[in-house]
């Protein structure tokens, strides 16, 4: 029996190693925080977090601190590994969450909600905690307890509800990904003082993981050894892989799900926050931090990740960025349609959904409990098959948010077109 089990395990490993073995660096947009001077890295670089996605890694028995190569029997392929200060009371250095749960809070990307509200976000976080974190911690989440918000485990679920994320993906070999898994499994992952804001932060952690693949200068810092940033790691990865066709570098963007969970928008945040940070530090006479902040901003502000994303798009995809005229015409059409209907707020279609209770269904999808005690599905499939007027309002809320989004936060045409066509069909009377 032992021999047959060993042979079976070896066979599964060989099958797994034939699967996709890419690795992605995830650069997260800065989010709005209640204390604007709390995060030095976010203020001066406008990138709130860095993490790494292993496309062919899976959890062992849903344990987010133990990884393996995926096999056909695994239900969730791919994990995102991130480092967080105070993620749980046990002081784990890193946790790995299945990619779809990390980005959207659901088991499949097709089930992601069309809108984001506090209730949806909390339902996603609680469900994720029950599935992946409850077995490795003594923490009992209590949203009403102020001290409970000290722990940052909520940042490991549904990130696209809160902010946009850039993905820098490189091609790796199965052997390289297996090596990464072994390094992570054997690393010291629990204990106090493993994470420091300046000398061992999420950027350092992500960089160290990628260093096992890229035998290059990724260990060097772009400014000083005292400060590393997500943007700095992204810039070094781009420089390292630009002339290496075997790595097949590609840049993708996970757009933020429309809703009330607003991120710190890149179109106006940089100048305001940097000036505020420097002014604040000057007022409290913290000259070293002023100098450090100015230096870090100078070293990273010239690197524009969104421009790199646009340049990385192929010619056909780039055509999906339609002109301002196209978006203006759609906006006018939307306003004309909304002015004729009577069952949802034309100006603020998202507002009524803010207070609807959210729940996770057995298949992992999300529903809202409407005013008539009727469940309202929140994903594209649910909205497209529904005939309920509240479903149309939810769709309208998504469309309005996207139409009014500013560049570079406006979605690609290829992503918006299916939603727009569905909205037009519903507005024409199909199933209202």
Output the helix-strand order: HEHEEEEEHHEHHHEHHHHHEEEHHH
For the largest beta sheet, what order do the strands appear in spatially? 6-5-2-1-7-8
The overall pLDDT average reads 78
| Count of individual beta strands | 11
Low-confidence region ranges: 1-19, 33-41, 216-226, 264-275
Strand content: 5-15%
CA-atom Rg in angstroms: 22 Å
Helix content: 40-55%
Overview of this structure, please?
By secondary structure, the chain is α+β, with helices and mostly antiparallel strands. The chain has 15 helices and 11 strands. The strands form 3 sheets. A 6-stranded antiparallel beta sheet has the order 6-5-2-1-7-8. A 3-stranded antiparallel beta sheet has the order 9-10-11. It has a two-stranded antiparallel sheet with strand order 3-4. A hairpin with a 5-residue loop joins strand 10 and strand 11. It is globular. Residues about 1-20, about 35-40, about 215-225 and about 265-275 have low confidence and may be disordered.
